[in-house]
Design a protein that fits this description.
The chain folds into two domains: 3-62, Multidrug-efflux Transporter Regulator, Chain: A, Domain 2 (Orthogonal Bundle); 73-124, RNA polymerase II/Efflux pump adaptor protein, barrel-sandwich hybrid domain (OB fold (Dihydrolipoamide Acetyltransferase, E2P)). It has helices spanning 6-13, 17-25, 43-59, 64-67, 106-111, and strands at 3-5, 32-33, 39-42, 73-84, 88-95, 98-105, 119-124. The longest helix has 17 residues, at 43-59. 10% of the residues are buried. It is elongated. With 142 residues, the chain is an alpha+beta fold. Helix 1 (6-13) crosses helix 2 (17-25). Keywords: Molybdenum. One of its GO terms (molecular function) is DNA binding. Residues 68-133 form the Mop domain.
Length: 142
C-alpha cells in the first residue's frame, strides 16, 4: 500500500498542509515518521479516514437533503464562470481542488441565481465513471 506525505494528503483531501498536520497532532489521522523524519500516512489509513469523514458529513444532519437523495457525489464550491447562451448555460464550480462544469438550461441557471462568486453545490450521479491511476503497477512496457 502506498504512503503519502503531508502535502500529498492535503492535495487529495482538499485542505491545507497545516490542517493535515493538526489532524495528525491531535490523533485524528495516524502518521509515522519515515527514515528522513518526514511524516507519512499509510494509504489504507487515509482511505478509512476519508470514508469516515464522508459519512460524518452525511450523518451530521447539516444537509438533510443529502439523506433524501441517492446521489452521494457532492461538490460544494464557488461559481467561477457562467456562460449564458440563448438556450443553454455552462456553469463552472471550483470545489476545493475539483473543477466541475455543468451544462444546463439558461432558465435553470437564472432561476438558481448562478453568477460568478456565488456558492453552489454540484451533485453528480453517473452510471459510468472512468478511473485513472497515477501508479504504473501492472503496466506493461514495450
Amino acid at each position: 500500500m502506498p504512503n503519502f506525505r503531508i502535502s500529498e494528503v492535503a492535495a487529495l483531501v482538499g485542505v491545507s498542509g497545516d490542517t493535515v498536520r493538526r489532524w495528525v497532532d491531535s490523533g485524528r489521522l495516524a502518521a509515522v515518521r519515515d527514515r528522513n523524519g518526514q511524516r507519512i500516512v499509510d494509504g489504507t489509513a487515509l482511505a478509512a479516514f476519508m470514508r469516515e469523514e464522508a459519512h460524518a458529513d452525511t450523518d451530521s444532519g447539516e444537509d438533510s437533503a443529502r439523506r433524501l437523495s441517492s446521489a452521494r457525489n457532492r461538490f460544494h464550491g464557488l461559481v467561477t464562470d457562467v456562460v449564458l447562451g440563448d438556450v443553454m448555460a455552462q456553469v463552472e464550480i471550483q470545489a476545493g481542488p475539483h473543477r466541475v462544469v455543468s451544462l444546463m438550461s439558461r432558465e435553470a441557471a437564472e432561476d438558481l441565481g448562478l453568477e460568478v462568486g456565488s456558492v453552489a453545490t454540484a451533485i453528480v450521479k453517473s452510471t459510468n465513471v472512468v478511473v485513472e491511476s497515477d501508479t504504473s503497477k501492472g503496466a506493461h512496457h514495450a
